[in-house]
Amino acid sequence: MFKMRRGGVALSVLLPIAVVIALLLAMGLVGCGSASEATPTGAADRGSDSTQAAAPAAPADSSGAQSEVALGETVSITDQVGRVVEIPASIETVFCTSPMGTNLLYTLAPEVLVGWNITPTALEKEFIPEKYRQVVGLGGWFGKNTTGNVEEIIKRDPDVILDLGSLDEAEISEADRIQGLVNIPVVVVDGSLAESGNALRYIGRLLGVEERAEELAAYCDEVLAEVQANTARLADADRIRVYYAEGVEGLNTDPEGSSHTEVLELVGGTNVAQVEVSSYGMSPVSFEQVLVWDPDVILVASDPAEESNVYEQITTGSRWAGISAAKTGRVYQIPRGPFDWFDRPPSIGRILGVKWLGNLLYPDLYPCDIEAEVRDFYRLFFHIDLTDAQLERLLARARAE
């Protein structure tokens, strides 16, 4: 049993009272009008493919959310991987296990965050309003050898912890482990890019910010529907061949099928990398392999610490000069601020990345004023009206010539 918050009454006290009331009702000793009774929804089988989501005092809707019965200060819900979790009926503070969840929650309800996973860099802080910049990094459970600062997380006492990730047995196991470690309920939500809208709706219901959630979710749904329709019309011969350059020399990458290249696959680019999918990504490749692949376009990973010169190496160095992308000036650095538009860490910014990359690779399919799109997205999702200088900082290396 999780600790009760804000003066909640223990279930062990309330259950006998409920039984007595039920008996009185059956005997006709309690006078009140008739009322319909809600029945808790059973938990979905763990590891099943179905998505069964629940939120406090809310009717079922198209996202699959189902009502549960609140008792006192808590409510039992079924998360999106089928785990039954008891959470406070009113959620005021939240921590997330990884940047994927934190970044999404920041767009939806930044005031409930008790901490980032990673303290934002100077570059990232430029795109975060002042009142949110001082929130500190508390770690989390993501990537290689990463763990949350358990003592500090417990000290901040979040009502729930959100875990955005895959809906599989590994995620269930990890959520259960974290929940046992910190004695705070952990709610698993689908973190796939394709389910961004439903993830926003689900979390919005948990937090009681359904209107805001629907506004963001509708935007995501529209973008994803557009990209799916456009990609379906692309002939194989028209697909642009792309290399994703990561690492200090641009000689690490992620192939098709990797979670790190979802944006590229969605817009219909052909990933030239012929390497095995790695659990953590950034598979090493040789320069000779890149020469053989000879991509039409090179996407250079973003540089949040502003320490890398890979973009300069590729665009001005003699070594890369013979590759088609370098010869034609089609080398672009992925924008970042406050979050990445393409990959690490995966964030809701990828929705904007879909529009940006689609317009970059296939302008006839994605005819838009990308500067206006970026301004609108940042205003809606990131709580900021971009200055001209900020817009230029984002797009300086990310525009088509």
3D structure, described in words:
The chain is an alpha/beta fold. The chain folds into two domains: 11-19 and 44-220, 3-Layer(aba) Sandwich (Rossmann fold); 234-395, Rossmann fold (3-Layer(aba) Sandwich). It contains 15 helices and 14 strands. The protein has helices at residues 11-27, 99-108, 122-125, 130-133, 150-156, 169-182, 196-207, 210-232, 262-267, 287-293, 310-316, 324-327, 349-361, 370-381, 388-395, and strands at residues 53-54, 65-66, 70-71, 74-78, 84-88, 94-96, 160-165, 186-190, 241-245, 252-253, 270-271, 283-284, 297-300, 331-333. Strands 11-9-13-14 form a four-stranded parallel β-sheet. A hairpin with a 2-residue loop joins strand 3 and strand 4. Helix 7 runs antiparallel to helix 8 (210-232) and helix 8 (210-232) runs parallel beside helix 13 (349-361). The longest helix has 23 residues, at 210-232. The chain starts with 10 loop residues before the first helix and ends in a 6-residue tail after the last helix. The relative contact order is 0.10. The model is unreliable at 1-72 (pLDDT under 50).
List the helices and strands and how they pair.
Blueprint: H1 11-27, E1 53-54, E2 65-66, E3 70-71, E4 74-78, E5 84-88, E6 94-96, H2 99-108, H3 122-125, H4 130-133, H5 150-156, E7 160-165, H6 169-182, E8 186-190, H7 196-207, H8 210-232, E9 241-245, E10 252-253, H9 262-267, E11 270-271, E12 283-284, H10 287-293, E13 297-300, H11 310-316, H12 324-327, E14 331-333, H13 349-361, H14 370-381, H15 388-395
Parallel strand pairs: 1-2, 6-7, 7-8, 9-11, 9-13, 13-14
Antiparallel strand pairs: 3-4, 4-5, 10-12
Helix pairs in contact: 7-8, 8-13, 13-14
